[in-house]
Amino acid sequence: MGEMPRYAITGGAGFIGSHIAERLASEAQLVLLDNLRRNSLAGTGLAEHPNIELIEADIRDRDAVFDAVRGADAVFHLAAIAGVSSYYAEPETTLRVNIDGTAGIVDAVVAAGVPRLIYLSTSEVHGPEAHDVDEESPCAIGPSSERRWVYATSKLAGEHLVLRGGEAHRFAATVLRPFNVYGPRQTGEGAIRNFSLAAVREEPLVVYGDGSAVRAWCYVEDFVDAALLALRSDVAAGQVFNIGNPAASVDTNELAELVAALVPGARVEPGDVARAEVAYRTPVIEKARRLLGFDPVVSLAEGLTRTLDWTRAGLREELVP
Hints:
By secondary structure, this protein is an alpha/beta fold. The protein is built from 10 helices and 15 strands.
């Protein structure tokens, strides 16, 4: 048997990063770099796994980043400040962490001679009206007068840093644009997480605004499938892929009712919103299907059930913040 591959995952203690690590831990040596701002490793035992090394550091710490990626066969770059409340509360920090951190990753990959970098961007690069967008659809960031768009701006800059870095320095660069990933161990913000917590705690499920905003919801295990397909595919080099589940597209009112229907006694209530609204966030994923063989298999009903089951168990074990 040959030597195990070595992969580095920045943001490896986060929601998606921890699921990628969980999937790879039995077959690879992993280095997870994370500042533990959002710690989804809690209760998983992954931090103690013999194939996993956890480096607690800021993504802007270039020495720590180089130590993490040195000797890696590939790097997944997920570390970023995310969450709408963060865009409003710390917009400049969001920009600096996400842009400077990605520039540092590219520099470290080049210096260490890492052959492959997979970067997680965001569906938000498509702007306020991302309705059935493909990878060639215009990236229409909202106005700079609105803090809401600092995250999308930073992530789009990161796409260019990664892709242009790959071209200039001849490493395989791939960009994945997640569309509303959800599931067990999600921390921070997200409608499904918020609704699940409220339902299990017997609190009202609050729908902010008129509830007409449409999202395509992608279960986390489906997203991990796509990330690993990109890792193992030569044709992924130099490419951007939308990763989501168009079949799981619903508006917020429908989503709240779906969650409420799974929890006896749950109720839905309206709430006011003072932030910029985003009407649609739905992808076309034909490119990922064609080039990667990606096909999401977890229905929204099944994903919601799994997420609620985990939320109940997590609250009993005090693992859900």
